[in-house]
Design goal:
Number of domains: 1
Largest sheet: 8 strands, parallel
Helix content: 25-40%
Number of strands: 10
Structural class: alpha/beta
Low-confidence stretches: none
Length: 280
Amino acid sequence: MIQHLQDTTTLHNGVKMPWFGLGVFKVPDGDTVVQSVKAAIINGYRSIDTAAVYGNEEGVGQGIKEALDETGLSRGDLFITSKVWNDDFGYESTLAAFETSLQKLGLDYLDLYLVHWPVEGKYIDTWRALETLYKEGKIKAIGVSNFNIHHLESLLKHAEIKPMVNQVEYHPRLTQKELHEFCKEHGIQLEAWAPLMQGGLFDHPTLQEIATNHQKSVAQVILRWDLQNGVITIPKSTKEKRMIENASIFDFELSENEMKQIDALNENHRVGPDPDNFDF
């Protein structure tokens, strides 16, 4: 039972990763992202998820630095994720992209580095670069993002080290049951992006009813559902009040029946691109 904002799950290589974190997709670089990251860490968050393509790694790094100065925490208390963008795929270019990300973040290692999308014909070489960086101790854990089962199967055939994490779009309208089962069988931790379906579920009657029963918000119910399903979740917010609310989900539990009601909302509906059909 996950009872605290700083509770962790142990990845298959023994690294501990927080169940809950802050995502910064579409948060502009500069003061907005600096203050968001800082507020999250000050309010108990320990995991921050960014990516090269978000264009805000410098601000994330600045927010981390200011938060550490202010709280007296050390770098080892935090779990920082970034991702290599599709344009940088390939062995050498991935190694270079990683160094650029590290420099922008102002860090000397990353906790987790992900292959951002399964670009056909390119992700195997990119994965080899992640394995190299992992062996060199520059990354504590490596993983993928937006990989479907067949992408994972193809990767596992070539991989020396299997991914520790697969970060995918995951919410009550897209429950990814088969993918989740496959990941569990292979010891790959599932992580949710767009867990709140970018706000598209807040007026859903089933979720509203469950929220009322627990005197919680719909967002809190969905995030709790993630955790009870064993899925790491990284909701995005730039407002401190909302960050605190999102993280206030450790004082209630959804019943088995409520979990089933939420599972039943699945329509295989995506708000983001389809990993089998994207052109970037």
